[in-house]
Amino acid sequence: MSDSVSDAQAQSTPESAQQKPILRVVKGNPDPTQVATLTALFASMADNAAQQSKQERERNLWGSIEERLQRPRTYNPTAFRNMSFF
C-alpha cells in the first residue's frame, strides 16, 4: 500500500522538480525556518514590485517637444495688456 502512495507522489513530483529553485544555499546549513523566512521575504518583495509597476503614475513631460515649439517667453512690462503674448 505504501508503494502505491509513493508511486503517486513520484508521478506528481517531476513537475515541481523541473521548476527553477527560488533559493540556492551556497555556504552554510540554514534551518527550515530561515529558508521559509527568506522565501516569504522574496515573495513579498516580488509582489510589491508587481503592484508598483501596475500603479498609474503622473506623466512626466520633461523634455516634451511641444515645449520646444512654443515661442520663448521673455519679460514684457506690457504683457498683461497684450493678451496674445500668453
UniProtKB/TrEMBL annotation:
Residue ranges of the region described as Disordered: 1-30
Pfam families found in the cross-reference section: ACC_epsilon (PF13822)
Residues spanning the signal sequence: none
Biased composition (Polar residues): 1-19
GO function terms (MF aspect): acetyl-CoA carboxylase activity; propionyl-CoA carboxylase activity
Source superkingdom: Bacteria
Protein's UniProt name: Acyl-CoA carboxylase subunit epsilon
Organism, as annotated: Corynebacterium diphtheriae bv. gravis
Phylogenetic placement of the source organism: Bacteria, Bacillati, Actinomycetota, Actinomycetes, Mycobacteriales
